[in-house]
Amino acid sequence: MSEKQQVTRRQFLTYTLMGVGGFMAAGTVMPMLRMAIDPVLQVKAEGDFIATGVKVDELTNEPKRVDYQFEQQDGWYKSTVTQTAWVYKEGDEIIAMSPICKHLGCNVNWNSNPNFPNRFYCPCHGGLYDKDGTNDPKTPPRGPLDRYDYEVKDGILYLSKRAKARGGA
Ligand code: FES
After folding, report:
1. Which residues contact 9 (CB under 8 A, 6 or more apart)?
2. pLDDT, tens only, 105-154
3. Do 66 and 106 have their domain in common?
4. pTM of the predicted protein model
């Protein structure tokens, strides 16, 4: 027998199988890892303002329904989101409110119930809000309507993607 260390047939097969197995495992696991981590690593453009196409000059002190859209990336799923706001002017300020009722999430409408003129009315359980979104404490909602942040660029109204809560009871 020589001084050189001999590799037995069993050792050779073991090393070969481990090498091939490791290569195949890496080929399977690495893409999965990348897919799992990739969306987390992407920089999110949160807080972006979206052009609504509404000219600020055309807004009045009467709430107007404004629908606007943007692309949303949720993990690997890309979708088009349509957001709605009730918008009006209060002097130089613009008020942009979410239509989502603070009771159980139905959509409120402005001036839609003849029994409650000039108020936001929720048809689900009779929730009422003043023009500025303040909830009527005698109705089910326990807080005011959320508000969007806004910007004006070249006379066009831009709104935030999400509305912010204003607190409440
Ligand atoms: S969901 Fe609006 S009052 Fe109940």
Report:
1. none
2. 999 999 999 999 999 999 999 999 999 999 999 999 999 999 999 999 99
3. yes
4. 0.73
